[in-house]
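HUMAN: Spend a minute on the protein record below and explain its fold to me.
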Amino acid sequence: MELTYHLEDRICIMELQGELTLDRAYDFNNQVRSLIDEINPKVVVMNMRHVPHIDSAGFGALATIYKMMQPHGKKLGIFQLAPQVWTTLQTTKLDELIAVYETKQEAIEDLTKD
């Protein structure tokens, strides 16, 4: 799992690439947590366009990141999901916890409105 990011006005836009599976979930979680602690964004949006597969450990990592952000008033959204990832997200009902969007712009507009 490769993660790159850039910051726009306290909005952290992450680009993810690769599978988010058991062997990568722990490192991914730690990397995102450290990044959030370091840059203190108000909103995090993750581009999942290049993530072909997420297993239960990967979904667990996303849920953990979401739960870590909530008490601090930070918001998390994901966008451009592969069809099979979207289907699994709906099946697990994780889409009721983490906001899912078609585009980066939709995510930013929705998550930054007060």
